[in-house]
Design goal:
Layout (H helix, E strand, L loop, with lengths): L2 H7 L20 H13 L10 E5 L5 E6 L31 H7 L10 E6 L3 H10 L3 E6 L6 H13 L2 E4 L4 E6 L13 E5 L1
Parallel strand pairs: 3-4, 4-5
Antiparallel strand pairs: 1-2, 1-3, 6-7
Helix pairs in contact: 4-5
Bound molecules: zinc ion.
EC number: 3.5.4.12
InterPro entries: APOBEC/CMP_deaminase_Zn-bd, CMP_dCMP_dom, Cytidine_deaminase-like, dCMP_deaminase-rel, Deoxycytidylate_deaminase_dom
Keywords: Hydrolase, Metal-binding, Nucleotide biosynthesis, Zinc
Length: 198
């Protein structure tokens, strides 16, 4: 046994109580992680104009539902329109597409999502607000509110306010997260996740 080992650094269990290597302190924090999951999920969307993801989290910081905007199950996204404008509304995506919030709720892997928080890229529309309220979700954290003045968003806020649903804009501690698949084969100093601070 080394001299240091006698200085209360080794235990009868045979391991050192001294930390041989400090844990990382630049790990991703929960809120950034959940919003990043929502954004990563959005990359599954076939919508050429708008990719939105949502991530539902319970009180134990466990993800219980993820979704992105897309056509309903069994309805080919090659046969339905993706246009935003057309002479006939039936030739636009709007009557058909399922929003990320709807899909995240329907994809839940828990019995329900009561009391959960939803991380979502865009502030929810009125139709999604109804679903969020009825599902029992208590808080919405959104990245962008770019359609703030549209009737759909005004109605959504009205519903949220009446139902007591909290909503707030996400203020990320980092502006960019880049995933590098090759980093797993590289030196420990090379990070799989490149986080760009604000
Ligand atoms: Zn919606």
């Amino acid at each position: 046994m080394s001299e240091e080992g006698n200085l209360a650094s080794s235990t009868s269990n045979g391991y050192s109580s001294e930390m041989p290597c400090k844990k990382r302190d630049d790990y991703l924090e929960w809120p950034e992680y959940f919003m990043a999951v929502a954004f990563l999920s959005a990359q599954r969307s076939k919508d050429p104009n708008s990719q939105v993801g949502a991530c539902i989290v319970n009180s134990e910081n466990k993800i219980v539902g993820i979704g992105y905007n897309g056509m309903p199950n069994g309805c080919s996204d090659d046969l339905l329109p993706w246009s935003r404008t057309a002479d006939n509304k039936l030739d636009t995506k709007y009557p058909y597409v399922c929003h990320a919030e709807l899909n995240a709720i329907m994809n839940k892997n828990s019995a329900d999502v009561k009391g959960c928080s939803m991380y979502v890229a865009l502030f929810p529309c009125n139709e999604c607000a109804k679903l969020i309220i009825q599902a029992g979700i208590k808080e919405v954290i959104f990245m962008s509110d770019k359609y703030h003045s549209t009737p759909e968003m005004i109605a959504a806020r009205r519903l949220f306010d009446l139902a007591g649903i909290l909503y707030r804009k996400f203020k990320p501690k980092c502006s960019k997260i880049v995933i590098d698949f090759d980093s797993i084969n590289s030196r420990p100093s090379q990070k799989p996740l490149q986080v760009t601070s604000n």
